[in-house]
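Review the following:
>
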Amino acid sequence: MAINLYDYAHTAADRGWGSGWPRCSGGSDLATVTADRSGTRVSVRKGLSVLVDTLLDWTERPDGGNYLLKPGQCGGYNCRPIAGTRTPSNHSWAVAVDLNWNDNPYTSTGRHTIPTQVAAVWKHYGFAWGGDYKGARKDWMHFEFMGTPADAVEKSRLALTHLAAPGGAQPSPPAGGALARGSSGPVVAAMQARLNRDYPAYSTLTVDGAFGAATEAVVREFQRRAGLAEDGVAGPATLAALHLA
């Protein structure tokens, strides 16, 4: 089942992760994972440990997200409520992580360092990003898993297939080396993020990894302006022009 990254009406308890603050059910069901490059350590639920470990390693790899994490500025499990409330934090279920919190604060200034492509890949594997919060203040550091334990198993399998091996910045494009309507995955999310970043005058796509009508229209506009064949298909020439080949 597809994961709704914007469904904040349901808690992690509703999704099958047990109780959160003040009766946190993590306990012996916690695992500490370590990012290979920086040695950054975070504690999460065992059912999420493979997925988080794979994403942390990909985030840091030069051929992946190329975004170095900072030990002492990252965290996972914390049995606490949301600051200033009596509402359990997703950290109390150990299904959320914060990355480089000094560089990616909870702020209305827009100040952050985490690349859009990194956020897009985490989102593709089921993590809502605080940078997408509605309103002026964004929680740029924050990623929380929005699926069930069963979803975590499936997303872990996919992440190991697509991201774990060196060179796995995203899965390979479909047969023929092209992305078209109906394609999906981190490579589509990376393309959407790149279009939004470099061509904001006409690209304001939702970075969801799904190649639909809106993405096709933006690809066509990019192709028209770049002097490429205007077919709405992101083939080798289009991906090369976007520096994604």
Summary: The beta strands are 30-34, 41-45, 96-98, 106-107, 127-129, 138-139, 142-145. The radius of gyration is 18 Å. The helical segments are 46-60, 116-124, 149-162, 186-198, 213-226, 236-241. The longest strand covers residues 30-34.
